Amino acid sequence: MSDGQRSEQQAQQLSQRRRRGRRFRSNQAQPTTARRDRATSRRNAGEKPQRPVQNGKNDTPPSHNQNQVAQTSQQEPHNQRNKRSKPKLNTAAIEHAPYVALSIQSSGIHPSTSKLVSIDAVTFTKDGEQVEQFHVVLNSGSDAGPYHLHGLREDEIAQGKRFGEVLKRVDKLIDGRVLLVHNAPRVWGFIVSEARRAMAEAARANRQRGRQKRRQRVGHVPQPKEIVDTLASARRQGLQFADTRVLNVARELGLEAPDAKANMARTKLSEAETSREQTLMIARMFFVQRAWQILAVHNPEDLRADKFGLQRSDLRIDATHMPREFENPGVYTPERGLVQGMEVVVAPEIAMDPDRIIEAAVRENLAYNEKLTRQTSVVVCNKREDLVGKAMHGDRKGIPLLSDEEFLRACEQVAPGKRLKD
């Protein structure tokens, strides 16, 4: 390349750089001019100019309205989560079958220390016609308990499902319906405990999952419209029975039911057959009790677990934790009556709602205890023969028994007690 050609090429490159520079300066001037025009208009309108943005952030403190917008934007995800937490109800299906009867089999007595091994449920119309049926055997991966409790062999339980696998199905059956159970504190306690355990396991798995894996969504704690307890309803009717099993209570109500005692014929039945028998009997008991207009109904929102996992009322659980202000004067006697500080235990065998007894005890500065101890002053129980449970142990310890009506009358004249020293 000659010197003349090289000089001509350099001149062309210089010209191109100049043209690019003019375009760049022209583009930069436009925003500056626009900012100047906006600032001028704000000054004319009496507004304060905004401070320049530094490091991507505006140094000007946000106004009240800006704070509200920021708070709203932060609350929106939480509100959306709350909306998602509400179950989507199949209104048509619930209106057609507003009741669901449910029975369970478990590895032990208390939800806090035991697991479910089976669930059986049937939905019903208002007239008592069966609509939907459900039965599942559960494998918790832990000790299933003795065979005589549930009637399931180890190989049957080994093939069962995890509760997290069926929770959505259970939610669909229970949500929005009236739940019919026998012994609500225990049955509902197991359902709530298992649901929360499954949700906790899913949450742990989601925290440990890889980015490519989908989140586990196992369901939620079921949300029934209300819970009807057929066992408590039978007690509200004043029935006295030592055997609280479904079939025996049904016979006490005058229903035709097989003998609840073990026999050769019943040992040949499978767990699915005996569980379905109990579920259908619970429904029959409910429809009879509904006709008599004597029902023990619970709002699930007013219940929470006690230390055993049993679902009790807020009032009942709070009463067990109330600080004691008076010394325990000892055992109740008819001569001196109730005295502030006496310890009261309520047995299940009463006709009134236990919360009514507990509320009266707390109001009169009596100490309520869920468990019978040597410091117990009186046991509220309507039975006087064939005693079981708390009443039986209280009678053996020489602790007097008062019926629910006798106790409320005694609460009308409670003697002042001796306050505890600080």
Automatic annotation (TrEMBL):
The record, for InterPro entries, names: RNaseH-like_sf (IPR012337), RNaseH_sf (IPR036397)
Residue ranges with Basic residues bias = 16-25
**GO MF terms held by the record:** nucleic acid binding
- Output compositional bias ranges, type Polar residues: 52-77
Superkingdom, natural source:
Bacteria
Which spans does this entry mark as compositional bias, Basic and acidic residues? Answer: 34-50
Coiled-coil-forming residues are: none
* Region described as Disordered: spans on this chain: 1-87
What is the official name of this protein in its record? DNA polymerase III subunit epsilon
